[in-house]
């Protein structure tokens, strides 16, 4: 009987420890309105791949000066590293392949995640989502449908997993997938 109690106790403690570690790995990103978008992304813990893609896109297009200065308001829907791992099933255990899968799609693919002209907070997005509005990407073309389900916001079928991360001139929302080109 004592062995049974010990086993149950150890299993319970192991479950608590696993839950605590899982909570630590799902760290929430923090706003920092004093940093421009590149500075903020460079310090992000869960958007490392998107940060690299954003940097590559900026080097190739040179069009990120307005975002850097904060002179044009913007909204970014950034896929988390764990979301990008789902793009290619083989990439789950190979970080470099995950990065290449997303980065090799070119700067246009990164651009589908950036919406210029308005800083859309979750409050405004939710109102739009309840009415199934579309967000138009004025630079890269296409539109993404917003929708709401059980209190969560979705864009292009991707769920917003963390909203309202403020940086200089704009807002970033973390999503659980990568947005695709639409027409």
3D structure, described in words:
- The termini are far apart.
- The longest helix has 24 residues, at 2-25.
- This protein is 42% helix and 21% strand.
- It is of the alpha+beta class and 183 residues long.
- The chain has a 7-stranded mixed sheet with strand order 2-1-7-6-5-4-3.
- A hairpin with a 6-residue loop joins strand 3 and strand 4 (143-149).
- The chain is built from 8 helices and 7 strands.
- Mean pLDDT is 76; it is low at 2-26.
- Helix 3 (48-61) runs parallel beside helix 6.
- The chain has helices at residues 2-25, 37-42, 48-61, 65-69, 81-85, 95-103, 107-111, 122-130, and strands at residues 74-79, 114-116, 134-136, 143-149, 152-155, 158-167, 170-175.
Give the SSE map.
Elements (H helix, E strand, L loop, with lengths): L1 H24 L11 H6 L5 H14 L3 H5 L4 E6 L1 H5 L9 H9 L3 H5 L2 E3 L5 H9 L3 E3 L6 E7 L2 E4 L2 E10 L2 E6 L8
Parallel strand pairs: 1-7
Antiparallel strand pairs: 1-2, 3-4, 4-5, 5-6, 6-7
């Amino acid at each position: 009987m004592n062995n049974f109690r010990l086993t149950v106790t150890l299993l319970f403690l192991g479950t608590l420890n696993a839950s605590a570690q899982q909570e630590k790995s799902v760290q929430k990103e923090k706003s920092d309105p004093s940093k421009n978008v590149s500075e903020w992304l460079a310090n992000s813990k869960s958007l490392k791949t998107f940060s690299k893609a954003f940097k590559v896109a900026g080097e190739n297009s040179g069009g990120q000066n307005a975002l850097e200065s904060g002179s044009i308001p913007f909204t970014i829907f950034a896929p988390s590293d764990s979301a990008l791992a789902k793009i290619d099933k083989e990439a789950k255990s190979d970080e470099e392949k995950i990065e290449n899968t997303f980065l090799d799609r070119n700067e246009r693919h990164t651009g589908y995640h950036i919406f210029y002209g308005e800083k859309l907070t979750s409050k405004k997005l939710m109102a739009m989502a309840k009415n199934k509005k579309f967000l138009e990407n004025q630079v890269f073309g296409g539109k993404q449908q917003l929708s709401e389900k059980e209190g969560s916001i979705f864009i292009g079928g991707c769920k917003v997993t963390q909203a309202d991360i403020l940086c200089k001139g704009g807002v970033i929302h973390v999503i659980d997938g990568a947005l695709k080109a639409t027409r």
